[in-house]
Task: structure prediction
Amino acid sequence: MIADLMDKIINADCLTVLKQLPDKSIDLILTDPPYGINVSKSVYNVEAGQKRSHNAKAVAGTYKHADWDSAIPAKEYFDEMERVAKHRIIFGGNYFTEYLKPSSGWIFWDKNNGSNDFGDGELAWTDFNKAIRKYQYTWNGMLQQDMKNKEVRIHPTQKPVGLLMQILRDYSDAGWLVMDPFSGSGSTAIACERWGLPFICVERDIDYYKASVERLNDERKQLNLFNGRY
Result:
């Protein structure tokens, strides 16, 4: 079962996939579930660099309208992630405190947003017995940490590959199997691909699935061109 899923982005409800996996068969879950804040209605126009208040309407055509962020996932999703994974890093953990145990090992992502009405960053809950760690990675409209290799943003809550690579560097070991049950833009898959880590990613939305697979395939072409990992 696991061998059939490895190094792919799967189009499915992740609960169906999780239920098929053996206990503690995944070394690390690194994921970003829906926060239940209807973010697709209020993000920003990436191409034009126009920010919008979270209380304002989104610029038409920025991202497709969808209801995937209308509510947080049910408790069963979190129970299954705990069952199958040896370790978990869950972005937006502050929205899921009713499902997650207290932890000393939170991660703070400082987006270097400057002065605007967007938050300074995001929190990720982890089950690692570590101190709180901060990662600074610019992700502010058209401004990105790595301007020479700007990422095309295909999803309203897309995480930068560079940020996920830093987290994987510090929170995983060689050969670890990484899973992202809420794959979205496919950034986790690309970060794993660059580090040479096996992965299983799952995305339910067909449009984001197709776009993320295309993004992963483009990444693989680039890696093949340069004959190596990062």
User: Anything to note?
Assistant: The first helix runs from residue 2 to 5.
